Amino acid sequence: MPRHWLFKTEPDAFSIDDLQRVGREEWSGVRSFQARNIMREMKLGDLGFFYHSSIQPPGIVGVCEVVAEAHPDSTQFDRKSEYWDPSSGRANPKWWCVDVGFVRKLPRMIPLDELRTIPALAYMPLLRRGQRLSVQPVTPQEWALILALVASEKSG
DNA sequence: GCCAACGTTGGC
DNA sequence: GCCAACGTTGGC
User: What domain range includes position A68?
Assistant: First the structure.
């Protein structure tokens, strides 16, 4: 039974269309211990919502899949990367990440505002005031409820 | 090991 | 561009 997750990204940097184009992507650059620990829990085949942040409107735009379990984030060792972390070493890497693969776009974006109107989703970290986790767990109930919002709509 | 200052996130 | 929230850092 796969577990479910949510991946936030700024579409200017990496969007669902980008993921569709490249097929899979190392989810590198996450520099939060909490988010790192969440990624370490992910298993091959787990599904995730793909969420666009820092645009108007923000919302869930697609579904992705964990295609590689947590491994050291390559950007932490790359001096030329903005995510280079001189305090981390290959013998004991500080930052870990999964790879995500494209599954599908939703028939339409589900805006954050719409998610807020559903009481059963009120405990999602995404909707909690001040919660800024870039990678989050999603319960099976939340997963089913959100997909049901667009289930009857035509795929686009 | 406390806690104030700082930096980042991300909706608005 | 603003600013609330909150994780991290660093002085002590």
Answer: 4-148
